[in-house]
Design brief:
The complex is a heterodimer of chains A (about 300) and B (about 140).
Chain A: E1 16-20, E2 23-30, E3 35-39, H1 53-58, E4 62-66, H2 85-98, E5 104-109, H3 112-122, E6 127-133, H4 144-147, H5 149-155, H6 160-167, H7 171-178, H8 183-189, H9 191-196, H10 205-209, H11 223-235, E7 240-245, H12 253-263, E8 268-273, H13 280-304
Parallel strand pairs in A: 3-4, 3-5, 5-6, 6-7, 7-8
Antiparallel strand pairs in A: 1-2, 2-4
Helix pairs in contact in A: 2-3, 3-11
Chain B: E1 5-6, E2 15-23, H1 30-40, H2 42-45, E3 51-54, E4 60-66, E5 76-84, H3 91-109, H4 115-124, H5 128-134
Antiparallel strand pairs in B: 1-3, 2-5, 3-4, 4-5
Helix pairs in contact in B: 1-3, 3-5
The chains are: A alpha/beta (about 300), B alpha+beta (about 140).
């Protein structure tokens, strides 16, 4: 898939592709220095980070932004069974190993959290630091939002999901629109870009498959993986930072950022910025400033230790 | 109560089955699978024949149930519009019929699954068929 014309002004990056687990993954790889890997979730793509990337590049970072298989400019499988939490973590692992990245600072949002953190916890030697935003990494309890029938469970219910999210693309369009603070800005500058990369029902499969992977009871498919993730994270000593949207209604800041702080007590933050679930849409530059400051402090600490 | 009605197998001479919706995981919430088993006697019929529905437009739809080894039957569902063999199907008609089929399904699943919640979800996401149906 090509870059949508509406996106080109804010997405001047050369498209790159890698074969991961048999799928064609799109990513960008810009700049030089220690790598920062920016991970999106459902239903976005790398474009979500368009305001975060330039300040990171200007600060001398190497910035890598993959599009999850099934989203953005990456290949989009058309069978539900092609998607699993472990499979998506393995896709990311394949890319990180092909690029032979080390000293990675991983910035995770939404499903970029469980997939990215699963990569991080199984490839600790490649990691330098973690940044988490509006995501989760434990089995239960889920967010209150995800247990509610209206609108969340109804939206992706059997047959309803393929109709609403498939035929009508409601998550990439109005769904993201409802989960930003400055909706008018989003409508005029970004909504069409998110919709354009999911042009027909077959390309939108993952928008209703991911919601079905969120554990909401003890019978959930990914429960064991989330239990492992929580266990590994609680043992992790990787430097970490927590950034959250003040207005987040999906993973509310009070509950979810606090839970990450409990898991990673050494983490900086939580730093609250203007934003609902898609906080990058409202506070991209501020997020970049936080990440740059965090990485600068890590570098100073490293030099102080003579490493 | 519903303008969607379970009907017998139609005559398929000079007709075409047009695939309009695919659900790979009908048992994501098991009560949905149970509803289709009960409605179309799938415990007895199995894979032998599709289920058929007539929708508000007058079109008949075939519900083809999918089985997967290792999973309860049915694991998935394909919905086909039965249309004149050489004629296209109008998107607005199809969309309104599918919305009516969703309402019929949610009404049949029952329990915590309420029509009000489906309609509220449709309104939240501005589904055109909801406006058509309200006229």
């Amino acid at each position: 898939m090509e870059i949508p014309p509406e996106a080109r002004a804010q997405w001047p990056y050369a498209p790159r592709h890698a074969q991961v687990n048999g799928w064609r993954m799109h990513y960008i790889d810009e700049g030089e220095g220690d790598p920062v890997v920016l991970l999106h979730g459902n239903p976005t793509w790398g474009y979500l980070y368009r305001d975060v990337i330039p300040p990171l590049l200007q600060a001398g970072r190497r910035v890598i932004v993959p599009d999850m298989i099934g989203f953005g400019l990456s290949e989009k499988p058309t069978r539900e069974t092609a998607h699993s939490l472990d499979g998506h973590a393995a896709n990311l692992t394949a890319l990180m190993r092909q690029l032979d990245l080390t000293r990675i600072t991983l910035v995770c949002h939404d499903w970029g959290g469980p997939t990215g953190l699963a990569f991080a916890m199984s490839n600790v030697a490649r990691m330098r630091a973690l940044v988490v935003m509006s995501t989760w990494a434990w089995p239960l309890p889920p967010a209150e939002f995800h247990t509610r029938l209206f609108p969340w469970r109804m939206m992706h219910a059997p047959v309803v999901g393929p109709y609403l999210l498939g035929r009508h693309n409601v998550l990439a369009g109005r769904g993201v629109y409802l989960s930003v603070v400055d909706r008018e800005k989003f409508r005029s500058s970004a909504q069409a870009v998110y919709e354009a990369v999911l042009p027909d029902p077959a390309t939108r499969l993952l928008t209703w498959v991911w919601p079905r992977w969120i554990p909401i009871d003890a019978g959930a498919r990914a429960l064991a993986r989330f239990e492992w993730l929580e266990r590994e994270l609680s043992k992790s000593t990787l430097p970490a930072m927590i950034i959250w949207g003040r207005e987040d209604e999906v993973f509310d800041a009070a509950t979810f950022s606090a839970r990450f702080k409990q898991l990673l007590p050494h983490a900086e933050g939580p730093h609250l910025v203007t934003g609902r679930h898609f906080l990058q849409e409202d506070s991209g530059a501020e997020i970049a400033t936080l990440v740059n400051g965090f990485m600068d402090r890590l570098e100073v600490a490293r030099q102080g230790k003579g490493l | 109560m519903s303008d969607v009605i379970v009907c017998p197998a139609p005559d398929l001479v000079e007709k075409r089955l047009e695939l309009v919706l695919v659900e790979d995981r009908i048992g994501h919430y098991p009560e949905f699978r149970d509803f289709f088993i009960h409605t179309f006697e799938l415990d007895r019929v199995g894979l032998a024949i599709p289920g058929y529905l007539t929708a508000p437009s007058g079109l008949t739809y075939a519900l083809v149930f999918i089985g997967r080894s290792g999973e309860a039957f049915p694991s998935g569902l394909e919905i086909y519009a039965i249309v004149d063999a050489l004629e296209p199907i109008g998107d607005a008609v199809l969309d309104t019929d599918l919305w009516a089929i969703l309402k019929w399904m949610i009404n049949g699943v029952g329990g915590e699954w309420k029509l009000d919640d489906l309609e509220a979800t449709g309104r939240l996401y501005r589904i055109p068929a909801l406006r058509t149906a309200a006229r």
